[in-house]
TrEMBL record:
Pfam families from the UniProt entry: CCP_MauG
Keyword Phosphoprotein (UniProt): no
GO cellular component: periplasmic space
Subcellular compartments: Periplasm
Record's keyword terms, sorted: Heme, Iron, Metal-binding, Oxidoreductase, Periplasm, Signal
Record protein name field: C-type cytochrome
Annotated binding of heme c 2, by residue: 213, 216-217, 276
PANTHER family referenced in this protein's UniProt entry, alphabetically: CYTOCHROME C PEROXIDASE-RELATED
Cofactor note: Binds 2 heme groups.
Signal peptide: 1-34
Binding residues annotated for heme c 1, in chain numbering: 75, 78-79
Length: 308
């Protein structure tokens, strides 16, 4: 069934129309991809090619615990490749936010939950010194990298000026830009392979749109391109969170990134969907709604490096 045919079966809510308008504004951030008629979600493009030498350095740095203050914490400790680049447990202490996935982060308009980093390079640089993340000092990091003969050779080959803070940030960002997951079943559906998702998954997508989820979760990353208040229709029961606006998270690979929400308080995808129905959409979502939308969201998963 074509996407436009599925839409014709339901009367779109006003918030869905608003979401489609927002999508038109943000679609231009991601190049010349054209969405199928009536669709708020765009297929994920292939990542831009990166310098292999810088990527190799960034991959090693990403997993190197010596970059942290206590020499035990690496980027990969919170962005676990086996868990779609996220942390597998709920927040380790009150007030600490869950680690967003690094998959497809290159397509987000800002980084971190509060959007304080504009680029992957800025995010990598600030994480080193953040006491809640790597808790290191750049002077110590530079000394550690400079004293490693393999790193020295690698940086000399990849950069004219060798080991510097800017070059470490560039290398990590180059690696992170390769962590894209085009080629999901849903992307194939958007590109015209209408048998790529099941009837139940199509129904889940129809309910996702009908409920108004696409007002915030749209574009190539199915999110990641705007801020939104947590608790639009009802105050969320977390005083700190209710006072803040968060960057809307991408739903790419979301079926693999439990636990959910900014604090990791939702153990399952269905539970997270139910919370969104109540606090963001202002109505209860039935168990059937939750199950079908979760089935749709599973179609957004793909391994890194798959072909679009």
């Amino acid at each position: 069934m074509r996407p436009s045919e599925q839409l014709s079966k339901r009367k779109p809510a006003s918030r869905v129309r608003a979401g489609l308008a927002v999508c038109c504004v943000f679609a231009g951030l991601h190049g010349a991809l054209a969405a199928p008629a009536g669709e708020a979600i765009l297929p994920l493009p292939q990542a831009a090619r990166q310098d292999p030498a810088k990527v190799a350095l960034g991959r090693r740095l990403f997993s190197d615990a010596r970059l942290s203050g206590d020499k035990r914490q690496s980027c990969a400790a919170c962005h676990n490749p086996a868990a779609a680049q996220t942390r597998t447990q709920a927040q380790p202490r009150p007030g600490m936010l869950d680690a967003p996935t690094v998959f497809n982060a290159a397509f987000n308009f800002r980084l971190y939950w509060d959007g304080r980093a504009a680029t992957l390079e800025q995010q990598a640089g600030s994480a080193i010194e953040n006491p809640a993340e790597m808790a290191a000092r750049w002077a110590d990091v530079l000394r550690t990298v400079e004293q490693d003969a393999d790193y020295r050779r690698g940086f000399s080959a990849a950069f004219r000026d060798g080991v510097t803070r800017a070059n470490i940030e560039q290398a990590i960002a180059a690696y992170e830009r390769t962590l894209t997951t085009p080629g999901s079943r849903f992307d194939r559906y958007l590109r015209g392979d209408y048998g790529a998702i099941s009837a139940a998954e199509r129904e889940g997508y129809a309910r996702f749109k009908q409920a108004g989820c696409v007002a915030c979760h749209q574009g190539v990353n199915v999110g990641g391109n705007m801020y939104q208040q947590l608790g639009v229709m009802e105050a969320y029961p977390d005083r700190d969170a209710a006072a803040r606006r968060f960057k809307v998270p991408s739903l790419r690979n979301v079926a693999r990134t439990a636990p959910y929400l900014h604090d990791g308080s939702a153990a399952t995808l269905e539970q997270a969907i139910g919370i969104m129905f109540r606090y963001q959409l202002g109505r209860p979502g039935s168990k059937e709604d939750q199950a079908l939308i979760a089935q749709f969201l599973a179609t957004l998963s793909a391994p890194p490096g798959a072909q679009p």
